[in-house]
Structures are given as C-alpha cells and as structure tokens.
C-alpha cells in the first residue's frame, strides 16, 4: 500500500480550513481561545497535589501556633489556593475558604465544558466538510468525455476528502475533547481532596481544646 497517495493538500485545505472556519463561526472567538489554552495544557503537568498539600501544611502549622486571628497567609504557589487561604485568613472563616474554592471550581468547569463543546462541534463538522470536498472534486469531472487522468484525479480527491473528514473527527477532534474532559475531572477530584483536607485541618486547629480540672472537663 502506498500511503503517499493519501497526502493531498487541497483535500486537507478543504476539510481542515472549512472545519476551522465553521467552528469559529459557531462557537465564537472566546470559546476557541479557551479551547486553545486547554489544548496547550494537555502537554503540561497541571495541579500538583503533593506539592500544594505540603505547602499548605505550613499554613496549618502557623494557624496551630498563632491561632487563626494572628496567622498570616502562606502562599503555596497555586494561585487559586493562595486566594482561598487569603480569604480564610482575611475573614477568619472556613466558609470563606470553601466559597473561594467553589467559585474557582465553577469557573474551571465552565471553561472546560466550553472547550469540550467546541471540539465536539468541530468533530461534527469535519465529516461534513469531507463530504463537501467530495462534491467539489466530483464537480471537476469533465463535462465532455472522461479523460482517464481527470477521472482518476477527481475520484482520488473525493475519496481523500471523505477520509480526512472521518479521521479528523474520530481520531483527532473527538479524542482531544475527551482528553480535556478527563484531565479537568481528575484535577477537580484532586483539588477537592486538598480542599476537604485543608478545611478539616483548620477546623481542628481552631477548635477549643478541653482542659481538665479536678472532677470535670471545661473548654479552654
């Protein structure tokens, strides 16, 4: 099998360019920009659970030593947890930490959903432009007689554009959409784990400690 026969510039331009243009027109520049950011993040390590938890452990130690009223924010390097701990220290409330986390969680999920939706639309459009390329190539058949070279070229382009559309949708765009979705869900699970741990640690650190007196216990 000669795979070089499957390489065709005009077919790639029709399918790729048409799919890109239609996706931008459907989804808008904002969603496409978010999608590009998410695609770029697939090749990089995202949230570092162990590092963030270790850094937040220092914040817990300070709260245990100085109390929540005198503690100062200790930044972990993760912008979202830094903002959440700033809210925790600033408002002296675990609920402030949870509110900040939920706000960031909603924003992250919304962005991921927009990227997934954009790629899903592109996956739907790619076979359509594969079919469009097929129609364009068939329209180039000569109207007076069928020269062997012209016939072969048109049929080859028709098949190639259809193939490009199917492969682009099912082996590129749809898998990329699922990769973004899986990465987003995995990150949210890790962030939720750290948030629950941090909230529990803070509540334990600021809880009143019972002290023993003869015959009974009273809260310190």
Automatic annotation (TrEMBL):
Topology with respect to the bilayer: Multi-pass membrane protein
Origin: domain of life: Bacteria
Chief location of this protein within or outside the cell: membrane
Subcellular location: Cell membrane; Membrane
Keyword Cell membrane: yes
Domain MotA/TolQ/ExbB proton channel: from-to ranges: 94-192
Family of this protein: Belongs to the exbB/tolQ family.
Protein's name in the database: Chemotaxis protein MotA
Species of provenance: Novosphingobium ginsenosidimutans
